[in-house]
Amino acid sequence: MKQDKKDYILEVAERVFGELGYEGASTRHLATEAGVNMAMLNYYFGSKDGLLKAVLERRINFLRQALLAIKEKPISSWEKLMQAVDIYLERVLVNSGFHRLIQRELSLNQRPEIIQTITDQVLQNINALKAIIQEGIDNDSFRAVDVEMLIASILGTKYYISNSSHISSQLLQVDLNGPDLTEKLKPRIKHFLQDFLQAYLLKK
């Protein structure tokens, strides 16, 4: 099987899992949507759990590679952090179905192996973000702050908005189920995080 075909199956599976959840996405439906037979699906991924695991690893790894690339750029620590926040918001807001899938798996806690995969992969991404912040502290660009709580605050802002959409829609006066999510909300979240990070991280 060519790699591009395998990637296509993973892209389709990500969409289907995001729309229907794990329980709602049968292997037959996944195979039909991807235009392959079930034998091929099982041969390359082993099971529906194996396919979900591959989907999770692929998407989360995309973000990690982007964060690692930012870390190596010859720019200031502040510019690196702003680029990291921007790419994080872009990936999370555009792929909201994927992130709902992650949250659903974590909250249901029914598949330990999948939970461990999510945990291991996301922690690697967090460590990549942590390295950018720590670099700024080490080179004296940033104040010596509680890095872990700072990361929890950055991630928590988006997760609260997306996981409490009914409340957040009223609070922020935007339609979180419509185009406002990316067209209006992303610049607002980015501006808030920039102000927040400036106040907390940068030296007076």
From TrEMBL:
Superkingdom: Bacteria
> Is DNA-binding there in the keyword field?
yes
A Pfam family in this protein?
TetR_N
* DNA-binding region coordinates: 26-45
Presence of the UniProt keyword DNA-binding in the record: yes
Listed InterPro entries: DNA-bd_HTH_TetR-type_CS, Homeodomain-like_sf, HTH-type_TetR-like_transc_reg, HTH_TetR, NicS_C, Tet_transcr_reg_TetR-rel_C_sf
The UniProt keyword set, sorted, is: DNA-binding
Which SUPFAM superfamilies does this entry report, sorted A to Z? Homeodomain-like, Tetracyclin repressor-like, C-terminal domain
Q: Where is the HTH tetR-type domain?
A: 3-63
Q: From the Swiss-Prot or TrEMBL record, what is one GO molecular function term?
A: DNA binding
Q: Which Gene3D superfamilies match?
A: Tetracycline Repressor, domain 2
Q: What is this protein called?
A: HTH tetR-type domain-containing protein
Q: Please give the organism.
A: Adhaeribacter pallidiroseus
